[in-house]
């Protein structure tokens, strides 16, 4: 039955079904630019790489040009006279960003880039003392986070190999259980200064139980911070209510704000205005009302803006502002519902394709434990080569991560059921069936 095919095998799920699902559950693709396909039978790419870089909203260009025009028209006076004056420009982003992550405006700021924000927050919140020096991360943390925490340990004169604890899934399992983290905290929590985990893991797509882990970390006396690069705009977040100490996220993935876009930062209200917290400062850390008094000593506000340092890059703020407006219009709850439907559909098709092929979906099956991304382990051949073939032979844009993972993210704002169907169809045609 599974002899090599002369005609590439196709999946049994009908293409028409995907088209019909798109007609009844259309999403907001019309608001985005979708790249053309690089190969295959369809004019547009099936873009499943929004977990890496989100697509460009159609509105972004005009909004960006308007900010550029203000500079042309006003020169320096644009700080006060531009249609969106530059001095308080970042404030336009605060409330929508706060809504997106379930925070209060005073707890939220858009600034810098992700790893920079993690460092600035660790300056305040990683304060090793006595036996309590450890930093807990996932073994599959994104490398930037690993490098960041190791360098923080060195900064404090500690040995990173002893200081950084990397939690691994149980033998034979692909993802961490909540209990793996909370058990560690219950037994060794008195040695832990900081827990810094990815809300959604970049590699496996696993959504950790942020409230349960935050509670366990804090109960153990540690500070709990979250890297929300793969969670912001992907899953509903309630950072304030969950009691998270701090968090940071980027805006170039699910927030569709362009390559290297500005990041977000959150500090819980209970830490705001705490004069004992060490913090790096610049002229944007001082209260805006005193900024031009040109005094030698800052007067930081009791908000997360105290963590700002430099005046913000206006042309980078425009795309974030435009994108956050979209999230406000559509709303995270509706996006999450469509996300579960789309990813559920992709899962169903991948189950069929992987049944006879050396492919395994490693993302947890429980919808409470994933966002939109499904990660597939490729047991034979190279995931990187496969991703190239998907793109050039089928117009499917996904990505590969070493050593053997393909990542597919149907993004509820713009991905379609037909995109998901194309993924499964392309995998069926590209990956040889295993003869049993
Ligand atoms: C989970 C995670 N953390 C950190 C980063 C690094 O972010 P940046 O280069 O914006 O600092 C990335 C980049 O993709 C990421 O996926």
Automatic annotation (TrEMBL):
One of its GO terms (cellular component) is cytoplasm. Its cofactor is pyridoxal 5'-phosphate. It catalyses: L-kynurenine + H2O = anthranilate + L-alanine + H(+); 3-hydroxy-L-kynurenine + H2O = 3-hydroxyanthranilate + L-alanine + H(+). Pyridoxal 5'-phosphate binds at residues 114-115, 142-145, 227, 230, 252, 283, 311. Gene3D superfamilies: Aspartate Aminotransferase, domain 1, Type I PLP-dependent aspartate aminotransferase-like (Major domain). InterPro entries: Kynureninase, PyrdxlP-dep_Trfase, PyrdxlP-dep_Trfase_major, PyrdxlP-dep_Trfase_small. GO terms for molecular function: kynureninase activity; pyridoxal phosphate binding. Its EC number is 3.7.1.3. Keywords: Hydrolase, Pyridine nucleotide biosynthesis, Pyridoxal phosphate. It holds the Pfam family KYNU_C. GO terms for biological process: anthranilate metabolic process; L-kynurenine catabolic process; L-tryptophan catabolic process to kynurenine; NAD+ biosynthetic process; quinolinate biosynthetic process. It is an enzyme of class 3 (hydrolase). Homodimer. Catalyzes the cleavage of L-kynurenine (L-Kyn) and L-3-hydroxykynurenine (L-3OHKyn) into anthranilic acid (AA) and 3-hydroxyanthranilic acid (3-OHAA), respectively. Belongs to the kynureninase family. This is Kynureninase. It comes from Micromonospora avicenniae.
